[in-house]
Automatic annotation (TrEMBL):
Residues 666-780 form the Response regulatory domain. It comes from the Bacteria. Residues 812-911 form the HTH araC/xylS-type domain. It comes from Flavobacterium gyeonganense. It catalyses: ATP + protein L-histidine = ADP + protein N-phospho-L-histidine. This is histidine kinase.
Length: 912
């Protein structure tokens, strides 16, 4: 009863709150703002001024959506505003043309649209607000003309193609420059508003044209990047830089002007508060201009500090306003809370009165029914316990079956599901016999057999469950039968050097058996024996005739065995031992036991130094029904035609070298399925040097070889692919090696776990060979790009926190150690390897893989960099510097120095 009262109170509070919120929201003007991706500082300033303006107007509900420079996302955001029927839409377009249609849709829906900062194509919008980008271009040109004292050569760095500000700024700039014949734009670089987009092309231009006087960039970020590029070629003081934006932030235009990086910047106002004011006028249908232009000025060293102070004051005032608005909102919430509390208390008093009356009545009624309810409650508890127990049993059974079918579906991914009759006809085709193709067709045929056997096992399992099997026993010489089955496994035994023997004293011993069913029993037991027996092991079959009218058939192997606490479960359906990491459906042994029981026999397991299965069969026919006996044995269809259930059968595929060995990258394949390994070697060995491992020595082999790339399965011997990938990525010696996971596990959790282990690519079976090849090529190409970065920035590598990877940390740490010991003539490669905690060979391989040169040359380069610094200081002569850095003679030092810097130490010292 009291729980019911509590729920009533909660519903009442929620209703009051919902009604209050609806009343507030229903009277507000809904304004949607779709923001383009600009700089964080410009975007924050724009959004902040708009939010403050909205907070000053209690009737405005402002929603801001940031498209993050994704035009599809911006169109989706505007579509959302239209669907939600906002009153006004404000749009800052990423690109002009793609947004035209959705803006027209908004106008047709009766929602006015204010376009800010950048225009769209046509005039299908209500109004435009922004700076006059044509005038900004003109102002920049006039400033250059009025301040120029040099060559008059100019480089213009534009914004992204398709952006209206970039087009208009270029148009205005060109108009003024073309009016003055002394000035000309030597080069135009098309950037994308980001600094990195201009560096490479600008550096090439500056090296060819060192007499450039001005660089005009369409924003301050690209202007700063241009200055940094000019600095790398020593022209930062000769060239003057003009930018656009004039933000009052760290590395903003004003700070860059004050610090002398930029000669000037054109103020590009955000206009956030003006945009919201104009949007409200549009909503109220007041008369407004179609184009509303924000004022702009040039900021240079003469007025930068004044404008900075003014902007600081504006920021302070905005902070005060935000603080006051926050205080007002707190008071509004307190008022609303107190008002709701009064209503709640009134309602609560009514409830208390009602409860008092009801409690008196309930006390009398409860006392009468208490004993009756206790009896009913106990009955319900007992029944509930039984139901829960039954539910748990059903859940476990269902879970086991689901796991079985899931595992079986994974097994179906590896075999190639081709129609066997067509494959067999291909094998017999004279045109492909004796060619390399025949091996691949046989591989398809083998996997088709494997799939057929798996399906047959599933059908057998269903028959066993439904008790539909009828025994068809005939007199059989058990020695000949056993030997006939063993023939199919002898090739595997010979290839793996396994001692495979049959021991039988009475070769004429006859038993009544169903040859087809016992053949399946043999196959399952021998398949397991070959799966879990290592190379050079032993597998024996012993047939022993006993005095008690029984025959025992022993299958003994020297494999991994089965844990003692799991021996009683091995014949249960769907069971897999804890030490079994092979693909398995889990029904083979269960079927084997059922087939032996049909013969009124038994099967048992012993596990000591391997596994030993013992089948006990009765002699004679007295234990069989007449309907279970046939007079003549039918011809046996051997199910072990090809040993395909995860056994290691090699496929001899021809390999043709196309690329010379010295030019090939090395590839390590970690896979325990020999068929798949053979396939990968056949398809990839023309382009790569292939190494393989079944996973038992994966870490050791990777560290020994240091391959260029690794392909790894998940289910492997000893460790799974996730553990191997994680260890290799953590190890400094192998962290740079790209890893591709190639597995049948395609669920979301497996993919996520793989990526968390540090793998670079996750591919699932069945896979496309072309996609695998492209993935390998792409990863190697990315590794080459990283090597190019380290090679060209080897002495300016940022700390590891910049990128957060082990290569970054390794290079940084190595350079620090070399620099600390650069003046120590006894410092050697061995000393460096010792301080880094790796061997000399591993250090050589690691450095060669990352930067493409050997470690000795790298140390020598660092010494030469130090020598250049000492020459600039001019405190030591050339001989002193040479000997202090461990060079054998001044002449050798001079030769090495000239090879690196292009001039002799003497010339370098004089020039500095």
């Amino acid at each position: 009863m009291y729980q019911t009262v509590k729920y009533i109170l909660l519903l009442f509070i929620a209703s009051l709150t919902l009604i209050s919120c609806k009343q507030k929201l229903s009277n507000k003007i809904k304004v949607g703002f779709s923001q383009a991706m600009t700089t964080d500082d410009w975007r924050k300033q724009m959004n902040s001024s708009m939010k403050i303006e909205a907070s000053l107007r209690s009737g405005v509900d402002l929603t801001i959506k940031d498209a993050n420079n994704n035009i599809e996302k911006q169109i989706e955001d505007i579509e959302g505003f239209i669907s939600n029927k906002v009153d006004v839409i404000i749009v800052s377009p990423i690109q002009s043309k793609p947004l035209t249609a959705v803006v027209e849709k908004s106008i047709k829906a009766g929602i006015p649209v204010l376009v800010v900062d950048r225009k769209i194509e046509g005039e299908s919008y209500t109004a435009y607000l922004g700076a006059d980008n044509i005038e900004i271009g003109r102002i920049a040109a006039r400033y250059i003309i009025s301040h120029s004292k040099g060559s008059g050569k100019i480089i213009e760095i534009t914004g992204a193609n398709g952006s209206s500000p970039a087009y208009e700024r270029s148009l205005g700039f060109e108009q003024i420059i073309n009016e003055n014949k002394r000035f000309r734009v030597n080069n135009i670089i098309h950037g994308n508003w980001e600094g990195e987009s201009v560096k490479e092309s600008l550096k090439t231009i500056l090296l060819q044209n060192p007499d450039i006087e001005y660089i005009f960039a369409h924003n301050d970020r690209m202007a700063l990047s241009a200055w940094e590029t000019a600095k790398t070629v020593g022209l930062e003081k000769k060239i003057k830089f003009i930018g656009v934006d004039g933000l009052n932030t760290v590395n903003g235009g004003i700070e860059l002007v004050k610090s002398g990086v930029l000669d000037g910047t054109i103020l590009y106002p955000t206009g956030g508060n003006e945009a919201l004011k104009l949007a409200l006028k549009m909503y109220n249908k007041e008369a407004i201009a179609k184009n509303n232009i924000l004022n702009t000025i040039v900021i240079d060293k003469n007025n930068a500090e004044i404008i900075e102070n003014q902007m600081d004051k504006v920021d302070q005032q905005q902070t005060v306003i935000e603080s006051q608005q926050g205080a007002i909102k707190v008071q509004e919430r307190e008022y609303a809370s107190q008002n709701n509390l009064v209503r709640l208390l009134s309602f609560f008093l009514v409830i208390i009165l009602s409860l008092t009356i009801y409690s008196i009545y309930s006390t009398i009624s409860i006392s009468r029914k208490k004993k009756q309810l206790e009896r009913i409650n106990q009955t319900v508890i007992d029944q509930n316990n039984e139901i829960q127990e039954m539910a748990k049993i059903a859940e476990r059974s269902n879970e086991v079956k689901l796991n079985f079918f899931t595992g079986l579906s994974h097994e179906f991914k590896t075999p190639i599901t081709l129609i066997m009759s067509y494959v067999e006809s291909l094998i017999e085709n004279e045109k492909i016999k004796g060619t390399a193709l025949i091996d691949e067709v046989k591989l398809i045929h083998k996997n088709s057999n494997r799939l057929l056997r798996l399906i047959n096992q599933l059908l057998d399992f269903r028959k066993i469950e439904e008790q539909k099997f009828t025994l068809r026993a005939s007199s059989t010489k058990i020695y000949d039968f056993t030997n006939e089955v063993m023939i199919n496994f002898k090739g595997e035994a010979a290839r793996r050097n396994i001692d495979f023997q049959l021991i039988c004293k009475n070769k004429n011993l006859e038993l009544f058996i169903d040859r087809e069913l016992i053949d399946k029993v043999y196959f399952n037991l021998l398949s397991n024996a070959f799966k879990f027996t290592p190379d050079n092991g032993k597998i024996n079959i012993s047939i022993i005739e006993n005095q008690d009218n029984t025959v025992k058939i022993h299958f003994k192997d020297s494999g991994i065995g089965i844990p003692d606490d799991e021996l009683s479960n091995v014949f249960n359906p769907f069971f897999r031992a804890s030490n079994n990491n092979k693909n398995s459906s889990g029904i083979g042994l269960h079927l084997s036991k059922e087939f032996v029981l049909l013969h009124q026999g038994t099967i048992e397991l012993k596990s000591k130094q391997g596994s030993e299965f013992v089948i006990t069969l009765l002699k004679g026919v007295s234990h069989l029904q007449p309907s279970e006996i046939i007079n003549k044995a039918e011809k046996l269809t051997i199910t072990t035609n090809l040993i395909t259930d995860n056994l290691d059968i090699e496929s001899e595929l021809n390999e043709t070298n196309v690329i010379s060995e010295s030019e090939k990258h090395t590839l390590l394949v970690l896979e325990d399925n020999i068929d798949l390994v053979a396939f990968l070697k056949a398809k990839l060995s023309n382009e790569y040097v292939i190494y393989t491992s079944d996973g038992s020595d994966a870490i050791e082999k990777a560290i020994e070889i240091i391959p260029d790339i690794i392909i790894c399965d998940i289910n492997l011997v000893d460790k799974d692919g996730y553990e191997i990938s994680k260890e290799l990525k953590k190890d400094l010696r192998s962290s740079h090696i790209p890893i591709i996971i190639l597995t049948a596990q395609s669920n979301k959790e497996s993919v996520l776990k793989g990526l968390q282990s540090g793998v670079d690519q996750y591919l699932t079976k069945p896979f496309s060979l072309s996609i695998l090849k492209q993935s390998i090529s792409s990863l190697l190409f990315n590794r080459e790009k990283l090597r190019y970065y380290y090679t060209n920035n080897i002495y300016r590598v940022e700390p590891e926190s910049k990128f957060g990877n082990q290569e970054q940390s390794f290079i940084t740490k190595m350079n620090d150690i070399i620099k600390k010991n650069v003046e120590n003539p006894k410092f050697s490669v061995e000393d460096l390897a010792d301080k880094l905690g790796v061997s000399r060979v591993q250090l050589y391989r690691k450095v060669k893989a990352i930067i493409g040169i050997n470690i000795s040359d790298h140390i020598n380069n660092v010494k030469l960099e130090k020598a250049a610094e000492l020459l600039k200081l001019n405190n030591m002569n050339i001989s002193e510097i040479a000997y202090s850095l461990g060079f054998s003679s001044p002449n050798y030092f001079s030769t090495a120095f000239k090879n690196k810097f292009g001039i002799s130490p003497k010339e370098y010292k004089s020039s500095n």
